[in-house]
Design goal:
By secondary structure, the protein is of the alpha+beta class. It contains 11 helices and 10 strands. The chain folds into 3 domains: 118 residues, Acyl-CoA dehydrogenase/oxidase, N-terminal domain (Butyryl-Coa Dehydrogenase, subunit A, domain 1); 115 residues, Beta Barrel (Butyryl-CoA Dehydrogenase, subunit A, domain 2); 151 residues, Up-down Bundle (Butyryl-CoA Dehydrogenase, subunit A, domain 3). The strands form 3 sheets. The protein has a 4-stranded mixed β-sheet with strand order 1-4-5-8, with helices on one face.
Length: 404
């Protein structure tokens, strides 16, 4: 039997994050968004409060002191945070996602060390940053070709009990503010890209690790995005996640679930835009009646609501499939649908909201113009939608269309 109800624990989690988003994030998000210097937009006070609520350790297993949440929990948290602000949401869901990467690929010693550091961080500053994309482009690192000269360019060379890492990573969320970075590097340049890369745990303060300037972005301005520079960064072999050459095996195993957060964030933003448009349509009176009484406006609102509901349903289904691959009859192989579908629609939804508010939608007096700017990023980050569609296209023959 199909059941979309949440458990009592999930409802409590959802309500906790919703209150945090509405009471703590929303009152300051628009003002911070307008800061001239993007470095000034990073809301450390809010990040600390959220981390102290346990939002960074939602996917850390309970045996290590974390919440031990599911991917549905992941989706609930990501949606509510993005309802408050997408940039702040990015800070948390990237941290949660990368903790999942450690859980999937890490050994017991690594989990004990880093999960303990996260859970016991009373200051609320233990966020995690990635290190996958490079200046040549995010899609380049996923090159599936057999020619070794394509793909990841950052290198990690074994030197006794250490690895020496050199290279650059671009557009890294939480760059320069994270306590730990997960760096994808080439450990064998003589084999195809997908077989020759590994992931390394690089703590903040490691000699040779530095950062570029904070990127000035169109939207998501409350997250910090920087270039990571690695110059002879020396890390012990114990910081290798999994085995040499298993970087993409670990990354792709985790990736089918990661899209859940990006998709849920898009739903959170879409919901925020819908709520503003719905309220405005009830309050705005033209020719003696609220504009929601006019068919063209009501039709837009219904269209927005349908897209939100359809997106959330797909995300939850794909979250379930990712955690139950043995029951999903192959559907987990198309897990990126959870990212692609909602992030394709959020642009449409925010623009429809802008159209309902007309001139006020374009004005900075209302938050819709910010929502439109924030929406533009979604089809681009965490794997472009075009790239993800290509990957899913290769696997369509593995997944029957009759499953449900």
């Amino acid at each position: 039997m199909i059941d979309f109800s949440l458990t009592e624990e999930q409802r409590m989690l959802q309500e906790t994050v919703r209150k945090f988003a509405i009471n703590e994030i929303r009152p300051v998000a628009r003002e911070l968004d307008r800061a001239h210097d993007p470095a000034e937009s990073f809301p450390w006070d809010l990040i600390k409060k959220g981390m102290q609520l346990g939002l960074g350790t939602i996917l850390v297993p309970a045996k290590y002191g974390g919440y031990g949440g599911s991917l549905i929990d992941f989706a609930l948290v990501a949606e509510e945070l993005a309802y408050g602000d997408t940039g702040i949401g990015d800070v948390f869901w990237v941290t949660m996602s990368l903790s999942r990467l450690i859980n999937i690929g890490g050994n017991e010693a690594q989990k004990e060390k880093w999960f303990k550091a996260m859970v016991e961080d009373e200051a609320g500053t233990f966020i995690i940053g990635g290190g996958m994309t490079e200046p040549s482009g995010g899609s380049e690192i996923f090159c599936p070709l057999s020619d070794p000269k394509f793909g990841v360019r950052t290198t990690a060379i074994r030197d006794g009990d250490y690895y020496i890492i050199n290279g650059r990573k671009s557009f890294i969320t939480n760059g320069g503010v994270a306590k730990l970075y997960l760096i994808l590097a080439r450990t064998d340049k003589n084999v195809p890209n997908m077989e020759g890369c590994s992931i390394f745990l690089v703590p903040e303060g490691t000699p040779g690790l530095s950062f570029g300037k904070v990127e000035e972005k169109m939207g998501h301005r409350l997250s910090v995005v920087r270039e990571i520079i690695l110059e002879n960064v020396r890390v012990p072999k114990e910081n290798l996640l999994g085995k040499e050459g298993e970087g993409f095996k670990i990354l792709l195993e985790c990736y089918e679930g990661n899209g859940v957060a990006a998709g849920a964030s898009a739903v959170g933003l879409a919901r925020a835009a819908y709520d503003v448009a719905f309220q405005y349509a009830q309050d705005r009176v033209i020719w003696g009646q609220p504009i929601i009484q006019y068919e063209s406006v009501a039709a837009k609102l219904v269209d927005m609501r349908m897209k939100i509901e359809a997106s959330r349903a797909l995300i939850w289904k794909m979250a379930w499939a990712a955690e139950h691959p043995e029951l999903s009859r192959g559907l987990s192989k198309l897990g990126s649908m959870a990212k692609v579908f909602p992030t394709s629609l959020v642009r449409e939804i925010t623009i429809q909201a802008m159209e309902i508010l007309a001139g006020y939608g374009f004005s900075m007096e209302f938050p819709i113009e910010k929502f439109v700017r924030d929406a533009m990023l979604f089809p681009i980050y965490d794997g472009t939608n075009d790239l993800l569609k290509r990957f899913m296209g290769w696997r369509l023959n593995e997944v029957p269309s009759t499953i449900f």
